[in-house]
Amino acid sequence: MNSQNNHELIVSGIHLDLTPSLKTYVQEKAERLFRHEERIVRLRVELECDRSNTSGVQFTAKGHIQIHGPDMNASVQADECHKAVSMLVDKLDRMLQRRHQLHRVKRNHPHAVDLNVEIPKALA
Protein backbone atom coordinates (compact mmCIF):
# COMPACT_ATOMS: atom_id res chain seq x y z
CA MET A 1 0.00 0.00 0.00
CA ASN A 2 1.09 3.58 -0.50
CA SER A 3 2.64 5.22 2.52
CA GLN A 4 0.89 8.53 1.84
CA ASN A 5 -2.60 7.01 1.63
CA ASN A 6 -4.01 5.21 4.64
CA HIS A 7 -6.29 2.50 3.34
CA GLU A 8 -7.92 0.10 5.72
CA LEU A 9 -8.86 -3.43 4.70
CA ILE A 10 -11.09 -5.50 6.98
CA VAL A 11 -11.64 -9.16 6.13
CA SER A 12 -14.13 -11.19 8.15
CA GLY A 13 -15.61 -14.65 7.83
CA ILE A 14 -19.12 -15.78 8.69
CA HIS A 15 -19.46 -19.54 9.27
CA LEU A 16 -15.99 -19.78 7.75
CA ASP A 17 -12.47 -20.02 9.13
CA LEU A 18 -10.20 -17.48 7.45
CA THR A 19 -6.90 -19.08 6.53
CA PRO A 20 -3.79 -16.91 6.13
CA SER A 21 -3.68 -17.78 2.42
CA LEU A 22 -7.28 -16.61 1.97
CA LYS A 23 -6.51 -13.33 3.77
CA THR A 24 -3.46 -12.67 1.57
CA TYR A 25 -5.52 -13.53 -1.53
CA VAL A 26 -8.11 -10.91 -0.55
CA GLN A 27 -5.34 -8.37 0.17
CA GLU A 28 -3.70 -8.98 -3.22
CA LYS A 29 -7.01 -8.59 -5.04
CA ALA A 30 -7.96 -5.47 -3.05
CA GLU A 31 -4.70 -3.76 -4.02
CA ARG A 32 -6.19 -3.33 -7.50
CA LEU A 33 -9.06 -1.30 -6.06
CA PHE A 34 -6.75 0.86 -3.94
CA ARG A 35 -4.54 1.52 -6.96
CA HIS A 36 -7.48 2.72 -9.07
CA GLU A 37 -9.11 4.95 -6.50
CA GLU A 38 -6.92 6.74 -3.99
CA ARG A 39 -9.83 8.21 -2.03
CA ILE A 40 -10.99 4.88 -0.60
CA VAL A 41 -10.98 5.17 3.17
CA ARG A 42 -11.97 1.62 4.10
CA LEU A 43 -12.77 -1.63 2.33
CA ARG A 44 -14.65 -4.27 4.28
CA VAL A 45 -14.95 -7.78 2.82
CA GLU A 46 -17.24 -10.36 4.41
CA LEU A 47 -16.96 -13.98 3.31
CA GLU A 48 -19.88 -16.24 4.18
CA CYS A 49 -20.26 -19.98 3.74
CA ASP A 50 -23.78 -21.43 3.37
CA ARG A 51 -23.93 -25.20 3.76
CA SER A 52 -27.55 -25.89 2.88
CA ASN A 53 -28.65 -29.38 1.90
CA THR A 54 -30.28 -28.40 -1.39
CA SER A 55 -27.52 -26.46 -3.16
CA GLY A 56 -24.41 -27.83 -1.45
CA VAL A 57 -21.76 -25.35 -0.36
CA GLN A 58 -22.36 -21.78 -1.52
CA PHE A 59 -19.98 -18.91 -0.79
CA THR A 60 -21.14 -15.30 -0.60
CA ALA A 61 -18.67 -12.41 -0.75
CA LYS A 62 -19.89 -8.97 0.30
CA GLY A 63 -17.88 -5.81 -0.18
CA HIS A 64 -18.44 -2.41 1.41
CA ILE A 65 -16.34 0.52 0.22
CA GLN A 66 -16.26 3.65 2.34
CA ILE A 67 -15.20 6.49 0.10
CA HIS A 68 -15.54 10.25 0.10
CA GLY A 69 -19.12 10.45 -1.08
CA PRO A 70 -21.78 7.74 -1.04
CA ASP A 71 -20.59 4.33 0.13
CA MET A 72 -20.62 1.45 -2.34
CA ASN A 73 -21.88 -2.07 -1.60
CA ALA A 74 -21.75 -5.24 -3.68
CA SER A 75 -22.45 -8.91 -3.16
CA VAL A 76 -21.73 -12.03 -5.26
CA GLN A 77 -22.24 -15.77 -4.86
CA ALA A 78 -20.13 -18.63 -6.18
CA ASP A 79 -19.38 -22.26 -5.47
CA GLU A 80 -15.73 -21.54 -4.53
CA CYS A 81 -14.50 -18.93 -2.06
CA HIS A 82 -11.57 -17.69 -4.18
CA LYS A 83 -13.86 -17.37 -7.19
CA ALA A 84 -16.36 -15.33 -5.14
CA VAL A 85 -13.59 -12.96 -3.99
CA SER A 86 -12.37 -12.51 -7.56
CA MET A 87 -15.88 -11.83 -8.85
CA LEU A 88 -16.49 -9.36 -5.99
CA VAL A 89 -13.33 -7.38 -6.75
CA ASP A 90 -14.25 -7.28 -10.45
CA LYS A 91 -17.72 -5.99 -9.61
CA LEU A 92 -16.40 -3.33 -7.22
CA ASP A 93 -13.82 -2.30 -9.81
CA ARG A 94 -16.55 -1.79 -12.42
CA MET A 95 -18.56 0.25 -9.92
CA LEU A 96 -15.54 2.47 -9.17
CA GLN A 97 -14.84 2.95 -12.88
CA ARG A 98 -18.47 3.92 -13.53
CA ARG A 99 -18.40 6.35 -10.59
CA HIS A 100 -15.16 7.90 -11.88
CA GLN A 101 -16.61 8.22 -15.39
CA LEU A 102 -19.75 9.93 -14.10
CA HIS A 103 -17.67 12.40 -12.08
CA ARG A 104 -15.48 13.12 -15.11
CA VAL A 105 -18.51 13.76 -17.35
CA LYS A 106 -20.01 16.08 -14.74
CA ARG A 107 -16.71 17.95 -14.42
CA ASN A 108 -16.33 18.41 -18.20
CA HIS A 109 -19.95 19.42 -18.80
CA PRO A 110 -20.91 21.89 -16.09
CA HIS A 111 -24.49 23.09 -15.96
CA ALA A 112 -25.53 26.70 -16.42
CA VAL A 113 -25.93 28.87 -13.32
CA ASP A 114 -28.52 31.65 -13.09
CA LEU A 115 -27.30 34.79 -11.39
CA ASN A 116 -29.81 37.02 -9.63
CA VAL A 117 -27.58 40.06 -10.06
CA GLU A 118 -27.79 42.45 -12.97
CA ILE A 119 -24.55 42.63 -14.88
CA PRO A 120 -23.50 46.20 -15.85
CA LYS A 121 -23.20 46.90 -19.56
CA ALA A 122 -19.85 47.89 -20.98
CA LEU A 123 -19.30 51.59 -21.61
CA ALA A 124 -18.75 52.49 -25.22
What can be said about this structure in brief?
This protein has 124 residues and is of the alpha+beta class.
Describe this structure in words.
This protein has 124 residues and is an alpha+beta fold. It has a single domain, classed as Ribosome hibernation promotion factor-like (Double Stranded RNA Binding Domain). 36% of the residues lie in helices and 31% in strands. It is built from 2 helices and 4 strands, in the order βαβββα. It has helices at 20-36, 81-108, and strands at residues 8-14, 40-52, 56-67, 72-78. It has a 4-stranded mixed beta sheet, with helices on one face. β2 and β3 (56-67) form a beta hairpin. The longest helix has 28 residues, at 81-108.
Rg calculated over all Cα atoms: 21 Å
Return the string of H and E elements.
Answer: EHEEEH
Separation of the first and last Cα atoms: 61 Å
- CATH level 1 class label: Alpha Beta
What is the count of helical runs? 2
- The level of helicity is 25-40%
Strand portion, in percent?
25-35%
Count structural domains. Answer: 1
The CATH superfamily name is Ribosome hibernation promotion factor-like
The neighbouring-strand order within the major sheet is: 1-2-3-4
Low-confidence region ranges:
none
| Broad structural category | alpha+beta
